[in-house]
Sequence to fold (590 residues):
Amino acid sequence: MPDPVLIASGLRKTFGDFTAVDDVSFSIPAGGSLAIVGESGSGKTTIAKMIVGLERLTAGSILACGNDRSRPARSSRDRRRRGSEVQIVFQDPYTSLDPRQSAADAIDEVLRLHSDLAPGARGARVAELCGLVGLDERQSSCLPRMLSGGQRQRVAIARSLAASPRILILDESVAALDVSIQAQVLNLLADVRDETGVSYVLISHDLAVVRQLAEQIIVLWQGQIVEQGQTGRVLDNPQHEYTQRLRASVPRPGWKPTRKIA
Amino acid sequence: MSALLTVENLTVQLPAGGSLRTVLADVSLSIAPGEALGLVGESGSGKSMTARAIDRLLPPGAQASGSIVFRNQNVLDTTPAELRRYRADVAMIFQDPRAHTNPVRRIGDFMTEALRSRGVPQAEALERAVETLEQVGVSRAHAVARQYPHELSGGMLQRVMIGAALLTSPKLLLADEPTTALDVTIQAEVMAILDELRRSLGLAMLFITHDLELAAAICDRTAVMYAGQIVETRASSSLHSDPLHPYTAALSAARPDVTRTLPRLRAIPGRPLSAFEAPSGSCAFAPRCSHASPECLANMPDLISLDGGMTRCVRAAELRGQLEAPDA
Fold:
């Protein structure tokens, strides 16, 4: 097993009296994919924010590519290095891009910050990244408002990959997409991982998406891990009562919704 | 049995920059008393617009042709008084309950508004609201009636919306993605409540969703929309295993499967089209369809009957049983 690219130990986050994340530990091997599932308020997005550095840890530690990121970055150089370790793709492709920046410019901006490529080489790299996510030349010169939701999410993915991150956090990144487009983006994410060896942290409430993209899963409930393990094993044979309820709630052929006995 | 609601050849155009854009093209459907019809489609397919047209909630400047008949009354041509009575018979619930409640009014006041405006005394209206809250599985209903929307969770608030919709004893419920914003375990509960109440009250329902399986779980029949048209209507039990239209089959096959990891998802190339983007004079789905042939591009296909369902595909009969089964 390759060395872990991300190690989170004893993560804890409190907001006043409220404990959002309580003693959460996990690790991801290089090129691996870990899903964090749970319902609203279970703490999954808080964990994502702590990994990226958008939220400070109350306790615990995060090690990405061997570097500690439990404390805020102290210099812009430090911050840039962190950007080349971890990137994030958000849920809403309509609000996560600069409306006045074309897809190619958005990607180029990241390359300027995170690479020492000459302008000509940057152009080639932009084209390469656009090709990787399936954006054609016309689309890459478009402003976000001229693109569909699926195309925008491709731009967001290409932009995050421009920093050549070792870890990509996908925070409900396919949740807002139509079924036919979601399948395209999920296939794309599998290809990108094969080609670049990037690791995924997949934050999702959709167990079918999780099964498709992640080998490992942790199930959060009220800020705590209630079950973790190999995705197939956990979903086929859930042990914790909450995981069982989650699994039973997924609509599928022949499914009948049932009322929980309150 | 005669239909409770019949929509025939409904075409809706919306103003866009000086011209009119078609958002619904020739939509026909019917719902029998007590029947649940699912309406499934991707964004821009026209499913919400269909419900809005039925509830006479189209945006200003919209032009509708065709007919919507509810119990022998043409809905597109009513007086304001008739429309008020109609809306007591046809209730609607929405995706985001928070956007459809008044944040500074108590739950009880919000729920009883429709009854009070119909002359029911305050005390009686509140009593009925509390009873209805209990029906939709809200415990401590008296206390909840005194609370404000921000004090309730999304799932609880959606139950309140369902309760409020039921208070005027409607005959038809239009449910526009009522569980999409909810967590999956809460979704299962709200779906169960909707299904139970609908059956016990003999209420007909138009259930709008992007999820084929969700519609199939509580609807007798399901209609699938694409680019402003209905492309297939079929018994929900057959929709997944034996679809008639290539789009329905492709939609089923594109979904990831919670029971296994697929080597590759069968994505549909391209993106869903809105009605005004769709090519005229040919099948709207043809550019993305893996079964398209020259005849698909020659004419706009009509809805044809096949094996108890309806499909808008000229090749439907010959493709029978050959459409990608989701479990292949």
User: Anything to note?
Assistant: Chain B is about 35% helix and 25% strand. The mean pLDDT of chain B is 92.
